[in-house]
Amino acid sequence: MKNKAKQKRNTRIKGIFILLLVPITITIYIATAIIWNEIQSSEIVHDITKVAKDVPNHLGDMEVPKEYIPIYEEAADKYQIPWTLLAAHHRVETRFSTMDPLLSPVGAEGHMQFMPCTFVGWKHPSCGGLGKGEISEKEKTNPATIKKYGGYGVDGNGNGIADPYELTDAIYSAANYLSQNGASDGELKKAIFLYNRSDEYVENVLYFYHQYEDERVALEHSIESNKKEVLH
Questions:
Q1: Number of CB atoms found within 10 A of residue 90's CB
Q2: 58, 75, 101 — which closes off a domain?
């Protein structure tokens, strides 16, 4: 009997505790909500939030390596496309060749990330699927083989080899690809999309392209202004 009475008493105490706990919890919740709203409306938090939203647009931005610009310009001039477009692709594909290794999980190779079948040509007997193929290294870098199978690989430095892992060859090859797919006619979005069929990829490349174009125009304007000052 004593145990039953004790159990009833404990149950009653628990019930009272729960009844008291509910309004306390509600009060704490309301107070927290009010305080949080006050904090969010403050100028400091507004500024911090604004900066946080801006971070994704600028996180990881990198300046174009100056030593690469002459290569971009030469390739762009040959294939009649903006050199800043090549710089943007290089930035997105391998962060200006700082990616290690220069080989993607699906098999894209080199500084500008060409699938072997795109570099050598889809007419190669082994090509299919995503375009990895079974192409020997000798075939992969042979300009005659590339011409035979209709690939985009280019011997940019004139040493008789078209190598996606050689920077000049890779950039010339990318220029060739972009030019043949619309960039030389001003169809940049089309060319970028065909390079990598992703809307997000197109947005990323265009973001850096416009950034580098703005920097190029500003630099040219500054040089022109300095020339005029010297002449006067």
A1: 27
A2: 58
Residue 45 CB: number of other CB atoms within 10 A? 13
Instruction: For residue 189, give the amino acid letter.
Output: K
pLDDT per residue as tens digits for the range 45-73: 333 333 333 333 444 578 999 999 999 99
Domain count, the chain: 2
Q: Which two tokens stand for residue 211?
A: 């950034």
Q: Are the C-beta atoms of residues 131 and 118 closer than 8 Å to each other?
A: yes
Instruction: Determine the Cα–Cα distance for residues 207 and 195; give it in Å rounded to an integer.
Output: 16
- Sequence-separated (6 or more) residues with CB below 8 Å from residue 220: none
pTM of the predicted model as reported, rounded to 2 decimal places? 0.72
Q: Which residues contact 117 (CB under 8 A, 6 or more apart)?
A: 124, 126, 127, 128, 131, 132, 133, 135, 151
DSSP for residue 67: G
In a domain, 232, yes or no: no
* 209 in the same domain as 95: yes
Is residue 36 in a domain?
yes
Q: For residue 103, list its beta bridge partners.
A: 109
Both 73 and 142 in a single domain?
Answer: yes
Structural domain boundaries enclosing 142: 66-224
Tokens 């700082």 correspond to: 98
